[in-house]
Amino acid sequence: MIPPGPLVVICGPTAVGKTAASVEVAKAVGGEIICADSRTVYRYMDIGTAKPTEEQRREVPHHLLDVVEPSEVFTVVQFRDLAEAAIRDIHGRGRIPLLVGGTGLYIRAVVDGLTIPMVPPNWEFRARLEEEAKRLGPQALHRRLAEVDPVSAQRIPPGNVRRVIRALEVYEVTGRPISSLQSRIGSPYSVTMVGLTMDRPKLYARIAARVHEQIRQGLIEEVRSLLARGYSRDLPAMQGLGYKEIAGYLEGEYPLEEAIRRVIVNTRRYAKRQFTWFLREPRIQWIDVDDLPPAEVARKILEVLGKLESEARVWYHKAK
Fold it and tell me: Is the pTM of this model over 0.85?
C-alpha cells in the first residue's frame, strides 16, 4: 500500500509571523503553501488581510488566494474541497503541501476530513438573530443554542456570535443539532502540526504595529475602493477585521483615530479566540517565536519536522 502523503500545518494567532516563516520552511523542504485563512480568499482585499507579498509568492507558490469576489459566499465546504484538490496537485508533483493560517475550522476541515451539513445561508434569519444579539446581548442567543444543542454550546463561546447563529440556523433548517451532523472521517494525510506562539503583550504590540503599518500602506484607500466598486459594508467579506471599522470611518460614524483603535482592539480579541481554539488541539507542537527573525523561526519548525523531507522522498518514490 502507498503510505499517506505528508501535510504540514503551520498555525497560530494573527500577527505571530506565520507567513514569513512558512515561506522559509517551504523553500527548505520543497513545499508549496495553501492559505488557510477565511479572508485572503477574497479578491481586492490585500492590505487588510495581510496577504503574502508579491515577492513571497514568487519565492513559493501559494494556493487559495483571491478565489472569490467579496460579494460571494464562501463556505468551509468550498475551502475543504479546494484545499484537498490543491494537496493532490502538490503531491502529484512530488512536493510537500504546507497548510498555513489562523482559521481553525478551515484547518480542521482538511486535517480531519470534516463533514459539514450542506445548509445554505438564510440571510433574513441571520439578520434577525444579529439584531437580537445587539438588543439582548450575545448570551441570549447562546442560551437558546444551549437548549437545542448543548454540545455546540460547550464548543462555541458566547462572544462568537457568527458561529452561534450558524449553529441555530442549521437547527432551524434541519431540526437537528449541527453537532450531530458534523463528523470526522479521519485524515488521509500524514499530518505534522506546528503552532507559533508568543507572550500576549508582545503579540498585542505586534498587532498594533501592523495595524498602523496597514494604514500607512493604504488600507483606507483599499476600503474606499471596495465601497466604490459597490461592495456593501454589510457583506460577510466586509465584516473582516479592518474593513468594517474603516468603512465606519469613511461613512462618517467616527474619526480615524477611533477606527484605528477599534481595529486594534478587535484584532486582539480575535487573537484571543484563536489561542482558545488552537490550545484545544493536542496534536499541535508549539514553538515560542519570541522576537526571532523568520529564518530562525523556520529553523525551529524544521527541527520539529525532523525527517520530513527524507520521509517525503520515500513516500513519493513509493507513490510513483
Answer: no
